[in-house]
Amino acid sequence: MDQRPLGTQGLKVSAIGLGCMGMSDFYGGGDEAASIATIHRAIDLGVTFLDTADVYGPFTNERLVGRAIADRRSQVVVATKFGNVRADDGKFLGQDGSPEYVKKACDASLQRLGVDTIDLYYQHRVDAAVPIEDTVGAMSELVAAGKVKYLGLSEAGPETIRRAHRVHPVTALQTEYSLWTRDPEAVILPTCKELGIGFVAYSPLGRGFLTGRFRSIDDLEPGDWRRNNPRFQGDNFQANLAIVEQVEALARRKACTPAQIALAWLLRRDDQIVPIPGTRQIDRLEENAAANDVHYSLSAGDMEDIDRLLPPGVASGTRYPEGGMKIVNR
Questions:
Q1: pTM surpassing 0.85?
Q2: Please, are residues 156 and 164 in contact by the beta-carbon 8 Å criterion?
Q3: What does the H/E/C string look like for the chain?
Q4: What is the pLDDT of residue 130?
């Protein structure tokens, strides 16, 4: 597994990370023992960039990750997030970027993870009621205190990124980016490039849709959050199957899987982009990790073909329901 610099502050991570959210939340029931085995296999493969957040579970995913890395802390880069607030019963309560909450949330995450320092600490969603300068100012105090090494933002807009970066260097921006979500290319990616900020692509497999595993909504478990996602519903679902067919055709041409094409495309786009596909299964993990090699086989002509076949805006439906769209890219 290749290593990549993430940003210009000195952080290096595996070229492909592992999103741990689905091990505990949103995508149906999980198996903790199987998830920990998957994390251990990831580390063996060199996939050492692990992504979690306090609200996943809620509050259980950090504990799972903490248990998985307890005897191999030095081998991993741990990223977690604060700012989306949930009750113990899972109800979302909004965003909180107040300095007091930043420090409280960090201490709680350190305890759940069982670590002394968080490698990369993101604001999960921007709190429109709190100036970003105040939030990042409090985050910078965590760096000074040795509780956090590097700072990140998630789903922040370009002006917010610039304002935050003036307070303390931002190492990484995490935002949804994939073959069916190319929105960041217009302004976000150029802003990150200009400021020397690394880009972490979450949902790089289109929440699993781009793998070709789903042919109808019934392929999802009854409690799966994706049933409420506009791109998985009704006519949008059927229209988006055409995207999958294009990805499958590209995969056949390169003798790999659709998931590997989707990840390899991101790796080939820029060496400051790090995708973090999530999985609970070792076989899927191994498939995803092999995209590290596939990306070297993508020629300039292949990339041009992908741009032509799957241009920005190709997906049918928004990437979140209405409420979720109001708190992204702001």
A1: yes
A2: yes
A3: CCEEECCCCCCEEECCCEECHHHCCCCCCCCHHHHHHHHHHHHHHCCCEEECCCCCCCCCHHHHHHHHHCCCHHHCEEEEEECEEECCCCCEEEECCCHHHHHHHHHHHHHHHCCCCEEEEEECCCCCCCCHHHHHHHHHHHHHCCCEEEEEEECCCHHHHHHHHHHCCCCEEEEECECCECHHHCCHHHHHHHHCCEEEEECCCCCCHHHCCCCCHHHCCCCCHHHHCHHHCHHHHHHHHHHHHHHHHHHHHHCCCHHHHHHHHHHHHCCCEEECCECCCHHHHHHHHCHHHHHHHCCHHHHHHHHHHCCCCCCCCCCCCHHHHCCCCC
A4: 98
What pLDDT score was predicted for residue 45?
98
- Residue 28 pLDDT: 83
**Residues forming beta bridges with residue 118, ordered by sequence position:** 148
Q: How far is it, in rounded angstroms, from Cα 306 to Cα 285?
A: 24
The dihedral sign for the CA sequence 12, 14, 17, 18: negative
Active site residues: 56
Do 150 and 80 meet the contact criterion of CB atoms below 8 Å apart? Answer: no
Exposure pattern of 79-97 as b/e (b: 16+ CB <10 Å)? bbbbbbbbeeeeeeeebbb
| pLDDT value at residue 33 | 95
Consecutive sets of 10 residues in the chain, 330 residues long: mean pLDDT of each? 97 98 89 96 98 97 98 98 95 97 98 98 98 98 98 98 98 98 98 98 98 95 93 97 97 97 98 97 98 97 96 97 96
Contact present, 70 and 143 (Cβ < 8 Å): no
- 255 contacts: CB under 8 Å, gap ≥ 6: none
The CA distance from 95 to 105, in Å, is: 12
Q: Are 167 and 187 in contact (CB under 8 A)?
A: no
Supply the pLDDT for residue 30: 83
